[in-house]
Structure formats: C-alpha cells, structure tokens
C-alpha cells in the first residue's frame, strides 16, 4: 500500500491539511497525520484541535512515498522550525519521492533548495521567499515529483493531483463521482463533467 505523511504543526490551515487527508484515504492511500509539536493534539489556524495519528519522531519514513506540507502562516513557520521536516524533505528529494506543499509551505522547500530551477506556485504573499523557483502563478503546479498549490482556494485541485499521482486518474474520477463533485468546479479547472453517482 502506498503511504503519505502529512505534517501538522500548530497554526496549520485546516482545510489544506484535512482535505488532502480525506481524499487520499478515500483513494486507499495510507495517510499518516504526523505532529511535529511533540504532542498529538495540534490546534489549527482557527483553533480547531486535531489529534494527529503519530508524533513525527515516531514515524517510519523509509516506506513512505509522499510528504505533504499544509500551509497557514503560523503553521508554516512551525514546520520550518522542525528538524524532522527539513531532514525528511531533503531525504525525499534525494530519493526522488513525492513532495507536496501548499499556500505558504512551498517556501520551506525553496529555502531547502528543493525548488531550484523548478516550476512551482505558492500564496502570492510568499512569492518573494521562493528563491530559485520558476513561479507559475497557477493554482497547482507539478514539476517532476514536486507538487505545489497556491492556497486554500486550490485545495481540491491540489488534493486531487495528489490522488492522481498516488492512485491514478481512474481513482480521481471515482472519488469525484462518489462525492458529487459539482460540475461548475469541473468546468473551472477544465475537468470533464460526469453525472453524480453516489
């Protein structure tokens, strides 16, 4: 079974994290919410208390396929301070595994040098921190094994892209049908519409 690690830190943007967890799990991907705070309970940016699955220091990264960094201004700064986040992102980049980040969090990958010469996107407020990256201004950008998203509004296309690379296009379409994904959103992102079949 494929495996994804979603790092959580105090102040994380809840929708950017939990939407990813939700859709990856619907796709049958083992998805672990890993707290970098030394405790399982992690308050989000809007003070919603989420219980992580594990402490980051207790996770086995050797058999994981993807790391996901949610955004949120405070959450991103707390992720940036984590030695585990920095070490594992560099290791995944070295091993050619998937790295995904959204909103402010792509700036962490840029700081680590992972985005040097690569197409990427982020929240407009963080574009000045994207040293070395080729900024696309797109909702979601994919360059090799690196996937970046612009912000909360890009939550669905970002999460569906993670499902696509981990489980395939057919799984994306299955989930869209099962969840009654609205036709106007399909059109917004140039996705073919289908009748909803729950």
Structure report:
The protein is α/β, with parallel strands linked by helices and 198 residues long. The protein has 2 domains: 3-167, Class I glutamine amidotransferase (GATase) domain (Rossmann fold), CATH 3.40.50; 170-198, no CATH class. Helices cover 35% and strands 21% of the residues. A 7-stranded mixed sheet has the order 5-2-1-6-7-11-10, with helices on both faces. A two-stranded antiparallel ribbon has the order 3-4. Strands 8-9 form a two-stranded parallel sheet. Helix 1 links the parallel strand 1 and strand 2. It is globular and about 40 Å long. The two termini are 25 Å apart.
Question: Which key terms come to mind for this protein?
Answer:
alpha/beta; 198 residues; single chain; 2 domains; 35% helix; seven-stranded mixed beta sheet; two-stranded antiparallel sheet; Rossmann fold
Q: How is this fold's topology laid out?
A:
Elements: E1 3-8, H1 14-26, E2 30-35, E3 41-43, E4 49-51, E5 54-55, E6 66-69, H2 73-80, H3 83-95, E7 98-102, H4 106-111, E8 119-120, E9 134-135, E10 140-143, E11 146-149, H5 155-167, H6 169-178, H7 183-188
Parallel strand pairs: 1-2, 1-6, 2-5, 6-7, 7-11, 8-9
Antiparallel strand pairs: 3-4, 10-11
Helix pairs in contact: 1-5, 5-6
Percent of residues in helices comes to 25-40%
CATH architecture of the largest domain: 3-Layer(aba) Sandwich
Please indicate the count of domains.
2
Give the CATH H-level superfamily of the largest domain. Answer: Class I glutamine amidotransferase (GATase) domain
| Weakly predicted, low-confidence segments | 189-198
């Amino acid at each position: 079974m494929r495996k994804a690690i979603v790092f959580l830190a105090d102040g994380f943007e809840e929708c950017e994290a939990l939407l990813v967890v939700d859709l990856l799990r619907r796709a049958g991907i083992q998805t672990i919410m890993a707290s970098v705070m030394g405790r399982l309970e992690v308050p989000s940016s809007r003070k919603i208390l989420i219980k992580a699955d594990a402490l980051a220091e207790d996770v086995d990264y050797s058999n994981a396929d993807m790391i996901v960094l949610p955004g949120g201004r405070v959450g991103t700064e707390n992720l940036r301070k984590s030695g585990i986040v920095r070490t594992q992102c560099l290791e995944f980049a070295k091993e050619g595994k998937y790295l995904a980040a959204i909103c402010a969090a792509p700036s962490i990958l840029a700081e680590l040098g992972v985005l040097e010469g690569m197409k990427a996107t982020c929240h407009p407020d963080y574009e000045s921190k994207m040293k070395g990256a080729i900024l696309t201004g797109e909702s979601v950008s994919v360059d090799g094994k690196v996937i970046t998203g612009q912000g909360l509004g890009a939550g669905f296309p970002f999460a569906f892209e993670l499902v696509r690379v981990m489980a395939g296009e057919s799984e994306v379409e299955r989930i869209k049908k099962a969840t009654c994904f609205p036709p106007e959103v399909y059109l917004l992102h140039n996705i073919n519409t289908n009748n909803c079949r729950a």
